[in-house]
Amino acid sequence: MTYGIDTPGKIIAVHLNYPSRMQQRGRTPAQPSYFFKPASSLAPTGGTIERPAGTELLAFEGEIALVIGTPARHVSPEDGWSHVAQVTAANDFGVYDLRAADKGSNVRNKGGDGFTPIGPAAIPTEGLGEGDWRVRTWVNGQLVQDDTSDTLAFPFGRLVADLSQHMTLETGDVILTGTPAGSSVVLPGDVVEVEVDAPQAPGAPTTGRLVTTVTQGTVPFGDFGTKPKTDDLQRIEAWGSEQEHAEAVAAGRASRLEENAARSTATGGDATASVPLDGLAEASADPAAASPLTPEIRAQLDGVAVATVSAALRKRGYVDIFIDGVHPNHDGDTILGTAKTLRFIPFRPDLFKEYAGGFNAQKRAFDTVNAGEVLVVEARGIPSTGTVGDVLALRAQVRGAAGIVTDGGVRDFAAVEEFSIPVFSQGAHPSVLGRRHVPWETDVTIACGGAAVQPGDIIMGDRDGVIVIPPFLLAEVAAEAAAQERADAWVAAQVANGAAVDGLFPMNAEWRARYEAETAGGQA
Questions:
Q1: Domain range enclosing 515
Q2: DSSP states of 276-343 as a string?
Q3: Cα–Cα distances in Å, from 331 out to 89, 257, 327, 420?
Q4: Full-prediction pTM beyond 0.90?
Q5: Can you give the pLDDT at residue 290?
Q6: 190, 247: one domain
Q7: Does one domain contain both 482 and 449?
């Protein structure tokens, strides 16, 4: 740590302290209450935090952190502040899905690795008062928290004094002093920044911005502990209020809450079986929703034509599974992976100004796509503007994406063509973002090239085109298509040897019996 204490002996956090937060919560405690956070939860600026697999409600809390200088034991509120040597910024992350298991201790929901970013610099308190401080928090560049320490229900000196009645506060111990109103849920790909400063002091000293990027965890919880679960109350508290929750749904950042709730109820309140929120869906993060695209099925589909698989889907009533109008950027490209979705809406100047800047939905999608996923982009079938360029395509390739499919255009086409990642699109167009689209949301059901695509669907493509396979049909469709591909190859060999197609294609009973006899034992 920049303030000289590598590992604090204690990290103590206050539950409620800012009147703005108390009003938001609807309760005003007469005395402060506390909880501990483990030293293993500390994280530096510029780091990442994983939202645990199977959870949906990871919330940030920008806070002013006090660093104890001289030990304090049985000190008075008037003397408490003098034992604080430095002030820095902290982010007290928590997962509301795990609150029920903690009963106020916050061990599970706030004790995870990386759940206490702190820094990047500390400000000496000499010459500064306990009411001189300000804390501000930004999410994706938008200011969401802004409050000052002179409003606190329990001033810093009082916190030090109260805690010193029960334990010795030692040099380097850290006290997190509570968060103001504005705390809310963040999604994988979001960037959270916290800054603490003393704006009225000489030189306006500042900690600098404590930057944390949210990522999606993939390791599921086991059956040997309490599993995550959510309900409407937890969702409202996590988002900040019923209004913020409603606004998040309207903005697409929480567009799948109701689906989550329904599935959670159906599984007895086990949120590990629920579908993650916008921007959060990683099919591999949830064992109950894990991709059926196993190595065995991949091997089974190796060399199988998209046309053959589409015929198997047609037999089952799936006739609108084609992403029409898209073509590969390399001859011979094939694509097979699990869908991760990105949706653009029609351009509107005010919406573009609000939603296209900073770490927008387009950037989030390309920055969080996982290995084996296909990024599928809904561009409303408009070829006359770019939806992906060289930098974003390279980012997807570096992250191991299985490909990109867009029913719009590709900018920097020649540069993208040099990359190895398969890109299926309507072709080249030089325009930048802002001509026809506003990047809107990720990991939601979209319409791409006339086909409905949901996160977790299987995307398969070759020179004939791209199709969407519902996951629950994959195993049986893959088996049937592989068998059909072998039969078609045998038929082609007969035609090459001079056989007429009548009765052979499709095979009548005589030809079928001959085929089965010749291919018995896997000799096809």
A1: 476-519
A2: P-TTT--GGG-GGG-----HHHHHHHTT--HHHHHHHHHHTT----EETT-EESSTT--EEEEEEEEE
A3: 53, 41, 9, 12
A4: no
A5: 57
A6: no
A7: no
